[in-house]
Design brief:
Blueprint: E1 2-7, H1 14-22, E2 32-38, H2 44-50, E3 54-58, H3 65-78, E4 85-89, E5 94-95, H4 99-108, E6 113-120, H5 127-148, E7 159-163, H6 164-170, H7 187-197, E8 202-212, H8 218-250, H9 253-263, H10 267-283, H11 296-313, H12 325-341
Length: about 350
């Protein structure tokens, strides 16, 4: 097994990440940890080596996780390092005991792509981080049920694993954008969808827990939300719609549900719509003919939110976080609007320049 940690200027956190992984490796395991210092200008490489990792330094080519991983796999092949399983972990994350064992067990059952379970780190108690932590609980619940049905889960880029057979066939090219000029934060999801096009499913390993600190400032978290939504919209309008059509055409539930992950709006947006619908009926009863049925979506979203909050209690997320839900819904909906406003600055939605 090889663990790859792409890192750009992560000197402050890389030591903790490597230490958490090393503590999950037993003396009998054949595991190598590689930190890839991608265009770093700080002491990331030095601190990674001090923590016990091997270091690959990358200075050429475009910066970014996707390009770094494509380059790393090529370099490992040149070094004759071809493991049974490639495990990829974010530099800001720390793993819980049993993380690597859960991946190994899933691979031994014949899975080629495996995703972890992300939880918010207890070190970040900001209200927006705790609300995003509940969103990760929703992802966990969704992934668990998908696993029971043999469907494909959402690919969690903070911790994921790929078999040697998969990498030998595809390398990292399914994750690369069509125009290799830039990348965006939903590239891991795009990789999962493109793998589903090839007939692969993303297996969910709930015991492979990876703790993420998320953003610690409200401004940075808002910017990240807008980037996430831009990426979701771009992927939904391209890869997801194509996969959805392909799934219906082939009558394959795996492809249909993998596509729906990208086509469906965020839960917060659905919640905002349900609240708005109910408020409209209260304020303008004479203009609405739906009757009490208009409150059904509101009640369903509310009950599901309480269920997620109850499950989050076991992950250390205080139940009081649910009272932040109205502000969280407004915040996420605003991020969605920002994504639309700036959508034309990215990829295939970029407005063409006029000839001078």
């Amino acid at each position: 097994m090889v663990i790859i940690i792409p890192a750009h200027n992560m000197a402050d956190v890389i030591g903790d990440c490597v230490a958490s992984l090393r503590s999950d490796v037993s003396a009998t395991d054949n595991v190598s940890i590689y930190v890839v210092a991608d265009h770093c200008t700080d002491a990331t490489a030095e601190r990674a080596m001090a923590a016990g990792a091997r270091v690959l330094t990358r200075q050429e080519g475009l910066r970014g996780k996707t390009y770094t991983l494509a380059w790393t796999i090529e370099q490992l092949t040149l070094l004759d390092v071809v493991p049974d399983l490639y495990v990829i972990v974010d530099a800001t994350a720390q793993v819980s005991p049993g993380f690597l064992h859960a991946f190994s067990e899933s691979w031994q059952r014949g899975e080629d792509i495996i995703t972890s379970r992300a939880v918010v780190s207890p070190t970040n108690q900001k209200w927006f981080a705790q609300c995003l932590g509940l969103m990760l609980i929703h992802r966990y619940m969704q992934g668990w049920y998908r696993e029971q049905l043999g469907l494909s889960a959402w690919l969690e880029g903070r911790g994921m694993a790929y078999s040697r057979d998969y990498i030998r066939q595809f390398g990292w090219r399914l994750a690369l954008p069509a125009e290799q000029k830039s990348s965006h934060p939903t590239e891991d999801w795009r990789h999962g969808v493109r793998a589903a096009e090839q007939g692969y499913r993303v297996a969910f390993a709930p015991d492979a827990k990876v703790m993420t600190p998320l953003r610690r400032s409200f401004v940075e978290a808002t910017k990240q939300n807008a980037r996430w939504e831009r990426g979701r919209l771009m992927n939904a309008m391209t890869h997801a719609l194509r996969l959805l059509w392909q799934g219906f055409k082939e009558r394959r539930a795996l492809k249909v549900f993998a596509a729906l992950d990208g086509v469906q709006p965020p839960v917060a947006l659905l919640g905002g719509f349900a609240c708005g619908l109910a408020l409209w009926h209260v304020c303008f009863p004479d203009w609405s003919s739906a009757g009490l049925w208009v409150f059904v979506p509101f009640v369903l979203v509310g009950l599901y939110s309480l269920l997620v909050a109850y499950r989050g209690h076991f992950e250390g997320i205080h139940f009081i976080t649910v009272f932040w839900a109205p502000i969280y819904v407004v915040w996420r909906c605003a991020s969605f609007v920002l994504a639309w406003v700036f959508l034309d600055h990215l990829g295939p939605f970029r407005a063409p320049r006029k000839a001078s």
